[in-house]
Structure formats: structure tokens, C-alpha cells
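Session log. Operator J.P. requested a structure for one protein chain; no other inputs attached. Running the standard single-chain path with C-alpha cell output.
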Amino acid sequence: MKLDVNNPVLEDLIDRALEEDLAGGDITSDALIPLHTKGKASLIVKAPGILAGIDVSKLVFLKIDPFLNFSIHVKDGSRVKPGDNIATVEGDVPGILKGERTALNILQHLSGIATQTSLYVDAVRGLPVKILDTRKTLPGLRMLEKYAVSAGGGINHRMNLGDMVLIKDNHIAVLRRQGLSIGDMVRLARNRTPQNIKIEIETTNPGEALEAAESGADVVMLDNMDLDAMRQAVALIKHKAIVEASGGVSLDNVRAIGETGVDWISVGAQTHSARALDISLDLTV
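Structure written below.
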């Protein structure tokens, strides 16, 4: 996923973030630092990881003061280590200080997601399996968080509910009460959905997985199955559909899951449990 820095959604996100932090102005800087005091600040990495969000950070500073000079030294998707100077910003110090926290919050959060994603990608390296994200993102930040996943080497699943049909446990529970089987659900979705829309369904055992594939599902999700059940499901489906493993995935078991032969592994932890990457802004006047 590429980041469109001209996307009005991104501009609105930055505006809201700055309004949140500057609703009452920066009374500390305004009281203590003369308006046109010049300075230079460096963004310094404090922990190893993958960078994501540097272009967004630049937009934050330029939204505060379009006359600031922001120079990017390291691109998103790059591996960084403690001490790396990833960018510098020069100009009026009050503008730098007003943008500091918002820019760093976004940069640290996105870099944390990219770093977490890279750990999963590295864990399955050499296997023909892709690491996917989920919709378990913070409200309003999905575009940026999914961008961070791609910066870390992961693949984006659905961006929203309109991207594909995904028949999950609660849909299944309702449809079961109406007497529908797994195959019936897939066929019903296919009959009521445009042909260019892919259909995926959750399954809980190899038999359901085979039924889903034979009924025309494009993607069959193996939901919280153990490794033996996953291997059986993959063998039964035999490339009739893409096979996705989901549920209970961790860095400890992701490679073993990949070795079952599944095509995709979806990991919510990339976005909902990523630890922010430590990055600071060091100012010199």
C-alpha cells in the first residue's frame, strides 16, 4: 500500500490531531521563546526497528509552519538502529515545538506497527506464505496503520467491510438458525454479490473447509484450528481456494502455521498490540 500524502483524509487526520494538542495554544513556548528564534532539530531513533510515517511527520510540521525545512534522511520501510538520525527540521523554534509531540506520536506508532509486522514476516521467511493484517485498527487510523503494515513487509487484507465478503462466526450463527449449511452460505453470497467481489468464509474443521472450497469460496479461513487440522484442510482443498489461517497466531507459532501449507496468515497483533518505536526529537539552537 502506498501513502498518498495529498489524500484529504490524511490532511483531516493531521488537522484533528493538531487541534487536539493545540486547542489552547502552546502557552509554554509562547511565554518563553521569542517568535523568530531559529533552531534545528534531529529525529533520533532510540531502538532497533522498521521506520514508517516519516512523510506524515513532515506534513505535521509543515502544517504548523510551511516555512520549516524538513529533510528526510531515511525512507519508510528501512531498518533503523539506535542513534540513527532519520530526519532534521530547521526554522522557527516555536513551530518545531508545537509540532513535536503530534509528529512523534504518529511516527512512533506507525514505526512500532511496521517493526512488529517485520518480526512476523521474518519468522516465515523462505515459506510461500503471506502475513496479512486485519481490521483490528484504531478508529480513524486504519489507513495509516495498514500503510505501516505494508512498510513492514506485510500484506493488507480488507480495508473496510465493502472490500470483500467475509462470512464470520456471527453471520454463520444467524444463517445456521435458518437451516443453511456452509456451502449454502457461500452460494447465497455468490448469487447476491457482484462477480468481481471475492468471498471468504470462516471454517472450524477440515470438513467445513472442504465444503466451502467446493462451493466456490475464493478464500477459506481456518479459524483457530490446530496444526494437524490445518494440514488436513490444506490437503483436502488442494488449491481449490486460497487458505488463510487465523486466530491464536503469535511469533512463537507463526512459522509452524506457515509450514502447514496455508497461503495466508492473518495477524491482528500487528496493529492492536504493537509497541511504539522509541524516537526522540533533539533540538539545538
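Operator note: The longest strand covers residues 38-45.
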